[in-house]
Amino acid sequence: MERGKDTSLLMRDKPDPSLIVTGSRGHKRSKAWKRSHGYDSDDSVEVSPSPTTAVEVSGQTNYNDDYATEPEQSQHEPSEPPSEPPAQSERSTPVSTRPSSPDLEILNSAASSSVTDVRSKTEADRKHKFDVRFKTKTTSKEDVLKEQMKAWKLDVYNHYTMPPHISTDKSGNIVYQYKCKSLPSHPSIVLTRIRHDESTSNLQRHVRTCTPANSSETRAISSYAHGSTYTAENHQMNLAIWVARRSRPFAIVEDKELLDIFQALNTNCVTPSRHTVSRDVREIYELSKERVGDILRAYPGKLHICADGWTSPNVVAFIGTTVHWILDGKIVSAILDFIKATKAHTGVYLAARIAECLREYKIQDKIMGFTADNAANNDTLVRELSVIVPSFPGKKTRVRCFAHILNLIVKSQNLDWTFLRL
C-alpha cells in the first residue's frame, strides 16, 4: 500500500499539531525546556501561543529537531491504528504570555505618571498664556475679570449670578466662585473655578442636574419659549394665551369637539376648566403688567396715550386706554387697561379713571400727548387730567382723532362721492 494513500499511516507518522509544545512565537520546545520549567516528560502542559488562545500539548511526544523527518516504514508492514494522545496529567498547567501582575503595576504606574506630567504641563501652559495675555502683575483682579467676561458668550453663564465672586484658594490661586441662580425653595450652590481655566464642564454639569432647571415652573416657561413635548403646564398656558389674544370665551375650553381634538392628539391631555383659564388669564395680565411698567419707566423719552369708549352688545361700557412711544424709529404700542365704566361717561369721571391707570404703571409724569375723538366730554377730560396730573400739558398737547375729523368733514360738506373716488 502506498503511503500517500494510507490514511492510517499518515495519521500515525505525522505529528499531531495539538501535541507540539510551543511558546509565544510558536517555537518547538524540548524535554530540557520542559524539565527546566518544572514539567516531567510524561506530563501534559497547556501553552498559550498568543494572549487570547491556549494550545493543549502532551509531553509524551518529543520533537527536538526543527527539521524532524518522518520515520521510514516498510510497505509490507501492516498499518497500525494511530495511537491516541495520553490523558492530561493532574499537573497540567496553563502557561500565559501575558505580563505578570508586577509588570502590569509598573505599566499602569508609568502610564499614570505620564498623564499627570501632561496635565501639569498643560496647566502650566494655560497659566503662562493667561499671565502674558492679561499682564496680571500690573492689572487689577477686577479689570481682568471684566475683560474675561466679554468672551463669556455661552448660555451656561446665564444660570449663575454675574459677575462671579473673586476669592483665593488654599494654594494661593485666584479663583472665581459662581453662585447658582435658584428658586426660593432651592438652596444656593457655589461652584469654584481657577481664573485662568476657561473650561465650563463643571458649570454645565451642575446646570443639567440643578433642581430649579428641572422644576415644573422652569419647564413650563422653557417649553413655551422653545417648543417641546406635551406637558400639562405648557398646555394650560397655551390655552390661556389663545383665549386672551383671540378674544375667545372662557367656556370654549369645555367644548366637546375641542376636547376630542386634544384627546386625538394626545390621550394623556388634561384640559383645564373655564374657571382655571379665567384665573390664568388674570395672572398672565398681572405678570405682563409688571413687565410693561418696567419698560415704560425705563424709556428715556415721553409717552403718548389714547383713550376711547366702547359699549358691548350686552350694554356694558368700557374705556380702552393705550400707550405709544418711539423705539428705534418705529412706533410701539401697548394696551394699558380696559376699564369697566360703572358711572356716566362724564369728563371728570373719565379723567379720574385714566389718572388711576397711569399711577398703577407709575408713568403719570412721562405723559406728553393725549389722543381722543371730538366728543364734548373729552374736552372736560383733558382739562381735568391736567389738574390731577400737573406734569401733563393738557390742551396744548391734545391730538384729535384724524379719522373722526375726516368723517365730520365729509358729513358737513356733503361732498360728491365721485370726486372722492378720484
From TrEMBL:
**Compositional bias per record (Basic residues), positions renumbered to this chain:** 25-36
Residues of the signal peptide: none
**In the UniProt record, which is one GO cellular component term?**
nucleus
Return the Polar residues bias intervals.
52-64
The cross-references to InterPro entries, in alphabetical order and at most eight, read: RNaseH-like_sf, ZnF_BED_domain_contain
- UniProt subcellular location: Nucleus
Q: Which domain of life is it from?
A: Eukaryota
Main location group:
nucleus
Ranges for the region named Disordered are 1-126
Which regions are flagged for Low complexity bias? 86-102
Membrane-traversing stretches? none
Bias kind Basic and acidic residues: ranges: 1-16
Q: What is this protein called?
A: Uncharacterized protein
Task: Write down the species.
Answer: Agrocybe pediades
UniProt lineage = Eukaryota, Fungi, Dikarya, Basidiomycota, Agaricomycotina
